[in-house]
Amino acid sequence: MLFYLTNSLIASPEDEDFLLIRKCIKKLATSVTEHKHLLMGDFDVISHFNTLFNNPDDEESLLFNTLEKQEAINSIPDEITYYIEVIRGEPSALRKDGNVTIAQVKYKMFEDTTSCEKTALLGEDDYDCQVFLHIYKWYINNVCTTRLANNLEPTLGAGGHIVSEIKKMKSKNRLCLAIVDSDKKYPTHQPGKETTCYKCMKIKETSIYKLMVLNVQEIENLFPLEYINNHKFEGVGIINKQHFDTLLNNCHTEYILQYLDLKKGVKKSDVVNDTHYQTFMSYCFIHNSLINKGLEFQDFLSSISDDDYIQRPLQESLLKNVLNDIKEREKNKEELHPYLFEFQEIEWKRIGQFLLDWGCARSKEALV
User: Fold this and answer.
1) What's the number of CA atoms in the CB half-sphere (13 Å) around residue 196?
2) How far apart are CA 254 and CA 221, in angstroms?
């Protein structure tokens, strides 16, 4: 995260807040020298702290000395669209400057070193964060070339406990970024109160906690076809893949793949009481020549039992298996150039920018 120091933090030794401001900014500066965050500020305040931290053996001193020497210390990098001002008074509401959102926090937040830790990255599944980081790598290689380091801390194992993890992070004033599936079964579907997405959306966002809801049913919907086709399916998986392939290369492909449940598939019992879901699944049925056999969709529904599939699952463990494939290909130094559907490209870019803003950190070059 980029923290921007404002001139409001300048205090004389006689000021009652002087020692606490010095203490808090020193802790924040230490986290920056440890490559957990990024620091910038107004010229006067940078010069002020450069004078205060004047021990040449301390990295905090070297940091402010380096910042003061830089010509454009108050120029926010073009690639950043969200940053936090550190102020002395009470924080104001979020404000916009062009496409950049600016938040504020009070300096006292950094009295507890927990607030100086790397931004925590939370996902619903143990493997979600690995996908997000893979997408970030694609983003900086193909969309937004940057010299900024990135140092998020994936919190593996959040899984079904992501709601309690978010609340725990918030209670500790820990910077936290959570990304969850929308759980939408079709474009106009409204997920119920029992879904993780709904529960997370009920948690109030703050300047140091943000939630991203993916515009797909689940993270697997974001996998490019190349990644899926590269995976070796076996047994019943071969049949499932054949059914999946019938949905490709038609005018409804993107519409279907954005919301289709690739892990569990869709059974008659899932749609029987939801006419909107039936309409959505009718598009799958129309293009799946392995099952439609010239039937009308409603006739097909009438001919199958509640436990029969309208669309077979692709693979329950698709997330884990595709990730393993990606790791193996990267290990073999194979370059990945995924072709993305429009909805996938939009989401990959959103995720990439989100991680860039919340994970940016000082690179590990020597301070001089």
Assistant:
1) 25
2) 10
Please, what is the Cα angle at 84 between 24 and 59, to 5 degrees?
A: 45
Q: What is the pLDDT of residues 308-356, one digit of tens each?
A: 999 999 999 999 999 999 999 999 998 888 999 999 999 999 999 999 9
12-18 average pLDDT score: 95
The position carrying tokens 């690739």 is 262
For the entire predicted model, the pTM comes to 0.94
Q: In three state form, how does the secondary structure of 29-98 look?
A: HHHHHCCCCEEEECHHHHHHHHHHCCCCCCHHHHHHHHHHHCCCCCCCCCCCCEEEEEECCCCCCCEEEC
Distance between CA 86 and CA 73 in Å, rounded?
15
Q: Which secondary structure element, helix H or strand E, spans residue 153, and what is its range?
A: strand 153-154
Beta-strand pair 176-180/209-213: parallel
d(CA 78, CA 71): 16
Q: CA nearest 49: which of 3, 94, 83?
A: 3
Q: Which two tokens stand for residue 24?
A: 């808090």
Question: Rounded to the nearest 5 degrees, what angle is found at the Cα of 166, between the Cα atoms of 163 and 167?
Answer: 90
Which residue's entry shows tokens 């009652």? 16
Identify which of 1, 24, 2 has the alpha carbon closest to the alpha carbon of residue 11. Answer: 24
Rounded to whole angstroms, the Cα distance separating 112 from 108 reads 8
Find the helix packing angle between 43-52 and 18-33, rounded to 10°: 90
Extract the tokens encoding 48: 């002020």
DSSP element (H, E) containing 328: helix 318-331
- Beta carbons within 8 Å of 57's beta carbon, 6+ residues apart: none
The residue written with tokens 């950094």 in the block is: 110
